[in-house]
Amino acid sequence: MALDVKRGPVTKNAYRITKVRGKTALRIRVPGGHIESKHLILVNELAQKYGNGSVHLTTRQGFEVPGIDFNKIPEVNKMIRPLIEEIEIACGVEIENRDAGYPAAGTRNVSACIGNQVCPFANVDTTDLAVKMEKNIYPNNYHVKIAITGCPNDCIKAHTQDFGIIGISEPQLEYDYCIGCQACIKNCKAKVTGALTLKNGKVVRDERRCIGCGECVLKCPTGAWTRNPEKFYRVVIMGRTGKRNPRMATSFLEWVTEDTVLKVVKNTYDFVDKHIDKSLVKEHVGYIVDRAGYHAFKETALKGVELGPKAKVAKHLNFVGYQYERDENLK
Amino acid sequence: MALDVKRGPVTKNAYRITKVRGKTALRIRVPGGHIESKHLILVNELAQKYGNGSVHLTTRQGFEVPGIDFNKIPEVNKMIRPLIEEIEIACGVEIENRDAGYPAAGTRNVSACIGNQVCPFANVDTTDLAVKMEKNIYPNNYHVKIAITGCPNDCIKAHTQDFGIIGISEPQLEYDYCIGCQACIKNCKAKVTGALTLKNGKVVRDERRCIGCGECVLKCPTGAWTRNPEKFYRVVIMGRTGKRNPRMATSFLEWVTEDTVLKVVKNTYDFVDKHIDKSLVKEHVGYIVDRAGYHAFKETALKGVELGPKAKVAKHLNFVGYQYERDENLK
Amino acid sequence: MKLDNPYLPKAYKLLDIRQETEIDYTFRVETDIKPKFGQFVQVSLPRIGEAPISVSDYGDGWIDLTIRKIGKVTDEIHALKAGDNIFLRGPYGNGFNLDKFKGKHIVIAAGGTGLAPVKSLINYFYNNSDDVEELELLLGFRDPYNIMFQEDIKKWQKKFHTTITVDNACGIDGTCEGLITEYVKHIKLSDFHTMEVIIVGPPIMMEFTAKEFLQLGVPEDKIWVSFERKMSCAIGKCGHCKVDEVYVCLEGPVFKYSQAKELID
Amino acid sequence: MKLDNPYLPKAYKLLDIRQETEIDYTFRVETDIKPKFGQFVQVSLPRIGEAPISVSDYGDGWIDLTIRKIGKVTDEIHALKAGDNIFLRGPYGNGFNLDKFKGKHIVIAAGGTGLAPVKSLINYFYNNSDDVEELELLLGFRDPYNIMFQEDIKKWQKKFHTTITVDNACGIDGTCEGLITEYVKHIKLSDFHTMEVIIVGPPIMMEFTAKEFLQLGVPEDKIWVSFERKMSCAIGKCGHCKVDEVYVCLEGPVFKYSQAKELID
Amino acid sequence: MSIKVNNKDFNVFLDELSKKYKIFAPIRLEKRGRLSDTDMIRYGEIKQVEDIVWDEKSTFSPKEVFQPITQTLFYFTEDEYKEPKIDDKKIIVFLRPCDINGVRRHDTIFLKNGKIKDNYYKQIRSKIKFVMIECKKSFENCFCVSMDSNVTDDYAMAVRFKKGSALLEIKDESLNKTFTENNIKGETVEFTPEYVQENKVKVTPPDVDKMPQGIYKHEMWKEYSTRCIACGRCNTACITCTCFTTSDLFYDDNKNVGERRRVWDGCQIDGFTDMAGGHSFREKHGEKMRFKTMHKVYDYNKRFGEHMCVGCGRCDDICPEYISFSNCINKVTDIV
Amino acid sequence: MSIKVNNKDFNVFLDELSKKYKIFAPIRLEKRGRLSDTDMIRYGEIKQVEDIVWDEKSTFSPKEVFQPITQTLFYFTEDEYKEPKIDDKKIIVFLRPCDINGVRRHDTIFLKNGKIKDNYYKQIRSKIKFVMIECKKSFENCFCVSMDSNVTDDYAMAVRFKKGSALLEIKDESLNKTFTENNIKGETVEFTPEYVQENKVKVTPPDVDKMPQGIYKHEMWKEYSTRCIACGRCNTACITCTCFTTSDLFYDDNKNVGERRRVWDGCQIDGFTDMAGGHSFREKHGEKMRFKTMHKVYDYNKRFGEHMCVGCGRCDDICPEYISFSNCINKVTDIV
After folding, report:
1. Beta carbon pairs, B and E, within 8 Å
2. Fewest beta carbons within 10 Å, which of B118, C233, D172, F51?
3. Residues F275 and D240 sit within 8 Å (Cβ to Cβ)
4. Share of chain F above pLDDT 90, in %
5. How far is CA F224 from the centre of its chain?
6. Hey, is E188 helix, strand or coil?
7. Cβ contact (<8 Å) for E113 and C245?
8. Is the preceding omega at residue D253 within 30 degrees of 0, hence cis?
9. Is the dihedral of CA B183, B185, B189, B195 positive or negative?
């Protein structure tokens, strides 16, 4: 019987329509790009048995195994059961049929830098948050891209995502421990925003200037700077690349807690549900916000969210980017 | 003997200083993020034997194996010999001592989307170019980030890189094959720049508006649109994220050929060599261009390059981005 | 130019243009084309395009084309003046077979522009009233200023029982309010097998009017409809007019209801 | 306030301020502090800080402090007026041990502000000329308007053989061009073991001048130098003045060249 | 007579033929495929046998040889019509059995549907000689056997290509003459072309007589509304799709000069059912799919006695949404 | 006498003590480590034994107990000086043998270097009673054995912590009195604290007498110029680093009121060698490394007869550039 493949369900099962006729490619979700190395064995077997012996490390830090025959999908789904169990279900994602592969693919893999398990600069455990985020939003087929980065260096390129979640720290000073060596002041001046100055031999932090990168804590020889144990995040939203109007994500929330981040992202799915233009094959959430308006978005996104005392919310979104065509926005 | 590790050589050997005292993490280069799946077995063994049993798929599509003891580096380097041979040397990179691991790490892994081996939208074989680029610039310790993406959708986020290399196609019309169905026109209007219009029942392409995404070729039912077999690239440069002035890469070259791309990137290393501020620990090429000036860069970058008839070169670079501090640029 | 090129339209002189309604004009064209009742021709304007138009009337050496201004080609036709050239090819389609209607008790229900294709047939019976046992006219228009062929109608009213309906407010004396369908039940019927019912108009109008007649017991093969179809070649080649295995330009546009009801778009 | 707090400076009255050069002023302070030749005191201004200053001269109930305006503290001192309070603690450092120099053929080479620490010693020999066999002065200044203690120098010139050098253009009569080092060879030398050479000035000047004397055969332990050091506590606690195992504030600032040459920063 | 010729001689033969014939065959257009770095295999003029791609199925059918994608009907110069010049060179087409059977559908529509013959089609069709490419092994999606289009004898010559040589069965006299007159070296052999006996894809077309009226409104078409994107590739690839649309245009530089031309069209192409005045029908893509399917395996058969679809499988090869037309036919048959 | 107390009773004992003593011990500051999600273990006041971190080496030494990082010397109110009030409560510090030996270095510098004693140091030091945390197992980078600082008997009490209980050897009479007077339940046991016998890290300090003058300009220091980033962490972590810098300041709100204070400083901290007038020396980080190393294993010894370094290994633990000071000492010794 010739190939008669319903493209929708296949794509929603995390198999991509590829250029090679009759061949598909499986995208394996790796929340936060962090995985127990033992799973590599399974991925290799998958590529050898069903794929073409090659594997791609995707731009969103998952695996893609190309060269799989469409009709082998059920077998492949059975074979990746351990991945479904030990990665997705382990994240707390509910998946009834464990032999049916991924229940959705619209919401892209939650990518994240290696975070504070390994990188000295990271302010948060990005892998842990990626796992929580996966549970928070998956399975879902709305086209949303979420990335988590451990510090404002933003190696994950949060500024190109729908939700760029940037881990920041609130440095707190133990006045007596500071010896005025200015290591933190020079670093902040050279590499960040110069938020630290010396006054009477002690460092002073300009709260408005400080972007929470935490590098002063790294530089301090006496441990005068330590991090407020409570984890904070800056959330930049609605960035994108693309063929019409690449733009950088812009600040939506600053100094918000982890559950605010999770709730805001969760609420956004209700926003999309309410405003998405069903007539289109798919509509990227950035465009929905453009159309439905930031205030509609903000209202839904912040429903049931208690913002802490330090939290800051954008009054409006001003994007920087460019348009391939001057009239791209004039229809 | 207590840990006495020269951090420079370790970092240059592609081992990162991690947060965990005494532990390092090996970053395995995977040009274009594409690899024979059999190597996964070795990566797993590496993580089990020397690491902590976990592996990270990095933001630049390589592997990172954390939790390796510093003193185990020589052993690990021996163990990854197959990777050095079958990935790096296979790319044409010259590495004398194959048991000494990676000879450099400054120039980051050349990342690339899966390209036209798998993705229907891709205009170029990004994996192939990534391999050529690796040979072209590696080993080198200058801090340069290069990413290759198969089409202006720019999934690899070329707009955040020093060199964002975007594969584009020149669609050529077989006038008689066009049946005026407007599939390409509607697609271009909705998803790109509306560079196609209907005139007398046939499609007309506005060369200046067309950004070379090649989607018209995908949409055409009669094969009236086909791609000029010669591969073309758009090169956007000097984009960055970071703590001071995140900005999007901007167009430097459009409609240039593969060897122009390779030569321009190669020349840039001479430019860096001439202008880098040796006093700094490291200086990102974007900042060097800011300092030394675009014209100095352009001159060196285009040395010995013959630009084709279609090629366009930026007169000057205008960046879009934002500054955390208004006076970030005023020293 | 060999004449065996069926697509080749011929230039004919435009004799006279009469305004029927605000958007309908009748164009009288001097031509040797001899159409049968209910046939249509492909009207051509060089460099603009072609459109299928029913022949609303014809006489010795001329035909009338009642054209509504609704498309690229018809807009340009409306810009023509008497004496200009207009290109025609045809006639096409089966039209009404006169024998099927001679000596019959005929009811003609025409909606809006649907009157054009049957006007010639009505005029024939007007001029040969003994060829028909009885002729009843049921003409429906959307609104008063859309009533066409008003002189003809006045003529017909003298000989035949004519009911004119206007969807909303009344206008000309004797016109009644409401849709045609409401008036079908007042039609005097006689023995069905001597009857022939012709319904021409927009698809929905034809469908509901036919239903009304069926309810009165008129057999399906006694009801004739004419399909206004998007045509291109008009000679059974281009596939635009095809419904099921029927090529409307060849087997139509006139169909018996029994066949027409199965022709689902 | 228990007096056993070594860091506690005491307030003393500023008697008189005399300008020596454009940036050097001598401050005469009324104090009970009795320094030895070559010792220094920590001068303190509340809320500004402390700085180590050599005592340039002293007498009954007063000491002279010749201070160059080069830092945060010294700037503020220069803003003081006679009658203001100035806070001192000390004296600190070993200074020149008079016995080592009595009855010797002494050569004193002083560069710039280096003259201050030895001025009191020279004045002593001036007033007790028989305590010294012979005294030769070699005073170098960067430029004419930087020559200090001009009256004293005039006084000294009468009793002792005094050569004044100015790095560049000559100024006051009798001054010669060029660096001190060039004039060392003209110094009349006698039997070395009766000689004592004192060299005080910027580190480079002391180093090269000492080399000149060594070339002339003067033994290392016959040459004395005085280290101008960055001090903080001046009582051997803060570590700023430490070189190798030597605390300059305790064992110095006066050292024999034999020990001094090994004190590498 | 059947002859074995090596490629060199075959080319001599082709050379001779090209004096009187334009020779069309499937050719490879390097990197001109729809997807980057893929080749396009479609019909084009060939000089020598090496140009012919005989071991792969062509993406587009030979339809464009006898039914040009764009065909000028008349030139208008002011009010005067002018038919385009006719190229008097004859035509040879290398094609497979399914395509040969496919051409018959074109003959039916253009020459036998209704009294009037399509003169433009007739002009070209009458000059064509078929050279059948022997097709023994079915390709992936072919179902020619089910549509009994795997066999034909309607050809002037048949050829079995081999590496560097070919077996020719020349039935047509003039071709024989050209062969012998130019004493082209060839070894007479026994060669009767073989045909595909079995396809992977099995299709049972619906019984035309038992087609229920309800099929039009049947549930099954809904699925295709969600799947089909009406891109038209099945129409353009299909050997038996004949629909076209005529339109007029005037040249930019002179509004008084223009032409009337017709271009391929199809029921799965957007705009096919647009009426003047903006009204349109069969807007749901499932309805377009139903219209096409019924036409291919019912309407045409009811009117002309044989199914329109010849089972070449090109529609299944090319559908970007992986809709299998062959499978759709089977579904209809299951319902009948 | 040696007693075994369970934690409850130990706390009663601590409670009593805290009436007359401020009790300092290594405590865990959750998530206050230099790197995100790591804890900081440094000296702080404790209430009960559960607060004490006895199974891990503290990041910072107990130095901050007797040599506060920031210490106000005088308050200025207009021209009048005022010494800060002295807290008369005595001090108990839980620390390890290496640290106890380390304190001796402070005593030497602040009380025996030069005639004048540092009164501020003396005030605190005189109120301190050492409670030695038994240290049997060497940590990663310790080399106390090589610097013979693994043993000491200079303590008022020694304690071996266990899960939920502890063995105490109380030598100090007043502590004994507090224990017995408040009849704190405890079981007399035989307990003599054991000491680390061996470290993983072996260091042979250079022979003070055979130190060649050339060591200062020796090649070896160049390597450290490329490695050391002069961040100062080795100075601040080191139990025996004693350097400080004094500076004056006036309060924002009233220029006439201010204070003179001293803060920790160190030869590896930027600015340590800056002179008035902008001139500075030992600018190359390798030179700073040489100055520190010579001070720890040569200069101090030449002056006071014992090496300054006690081998606690905290500098090796904390150097971000992974420079091993212990290894550097061995290198110097190799050259000597």
Report:
1. 87
2. D172
3. no
4. 78
5. 25
6. strand
7. no
8. yes
9. positive
- Contact residues, chain B, for A243 at CB < 8 Å: 152-153, 191-193, 211, 213
Q: In this structure, what token pair is assigned to residue D89?
A: 């603690």
For residue A268, which amino acid is it? Answer: T
Query: Rounded distance, CA A84 to CA A184, Å?
Result: 45
SS3 B213: coil
* Residue labelled with tokens 């929603």: A12
Mean pLDDT by 10 residues, chain E (336 residues): 90 93 96 95 96 96 95 86 88 96 95 92 95 94 94 95 94 90 86 93 90 87 93 95 92 84 93 82 92 93 93 94 93 88
The chain-wide mean pLDDT, for chain C, equals 86
Q: What is the pLDDT of residues F261-270, one digit of tens each?
A: 999 999 999 8
What average pLDDT does this structure show over F241-258?
88
Beta strands in chain F (DSSP E): 2-6, 21-29, 40-45, 70-77, 80-82, 90-95, 128-133, 157-162, 165-170, 187-188, 244-251, 254-264
As given in the structure block, the two tokens for residue A30 are 């790796």
Q: Which residue has the tokens 């370094």?
A: F309
Identity of the amino acid at C208:
F
Asked whether at least 3 C-beta pairs link A and C within 8 Å, the reply is no
Residue pLDDT, tens place only, B57-78: 999 999 999 999 999 999 999 9
Give contacts of B152 with chain A, Cβ < 8 Å.
242-243
Q: What is the pTM of this model?
A: 0.89
State the sign of the Cα–Cα–Cα–Cα dihedral B150, B153, B155, B160. Answer: positive
* Residue-by-residue DSSP string for E192-232: ---B----SS---PPPGGG--GGGGG-THHHHHHHH-----
Q: What is the Cα–Cα distance from F198 to E35, expressed in whole angstroms?
A: 70
Measured at the CA of E226, the angle between CA E222 and CA E227, to 5 degrees, comes to 110
Q: Which chains touch D (3 or more CB pairs under 8 A)?
A: F
End-to-end CA, chain D: 38
Contacts of F41 in chain A (CB under 8 A): none
**pLDDT tens, position by position, F176-226:** 998 888 888 888 899 999 999 999 999 999 988 888 888 888 999 999 999
Q: Distance between CA D79 and CA D175 in Å, rounded?
A: 32
Task: Give this complex's ipTM.
Answer: 0.87
A62, A28 Cβ separation under 8 angstroms:
yes
How many Cβ atoms sit within 10 Å of the Cβ of residue B3? 20
Cross-strand pairs, E246? E262
Mean pLDDT of A195-209: 94
Cα–chain center distance at B270: 18
Chain A with chain B: Cβ pairs closer than 8 A:
219
Cβ–Cβ below 8 Å for B179 and E264 = yes
Q: Cα torsion for D88, D94, D96, D101, to the nearest 10°?
A: 150
User: In which residue are the tokens 């995404």 written?
Assistant: B213
pLDDT at position A214 over 70: yes
Q: Where are the beta strands (DSSP E) in chain C?
A: 10-19, 24-30, 40-45, 49-59, 62-68, 85-92, 105-111, 134-141, 161-166, 175-177, 195-200, 223-226, 242-243, 246-247, 254-256
**Residue B290: how many other CB atoms lie within 10 Å:** 16
Helix (H, G, I), strand (E, B) or coil at F176: helix
Q: Pick from B2, B10, B21: which is nearest to F327 by CB?
A: B2
Which strands form A163-168's sheet, in the order they lie side by side? A111-112, A146-149, A163-168, A232-237, A250-256, A312-313
Nearest CA-CA partner of A233 in A163, A137, A316, A155? A163
List of long-range contacts for D242-245, beta carbons under 8 Å, 24+ apart = D242/F295, D242/F299, D244/F294, D244/F298, D244/F299, D244/F302, D245/F298, D245/F299, D245/F300, D245/F302, D245/F303
Question: Which has more confidence, C133 or E145?
Answer: E145
- Sort out which chain A residues have CB atoms less than 8 A from B213's CB and list them: 243
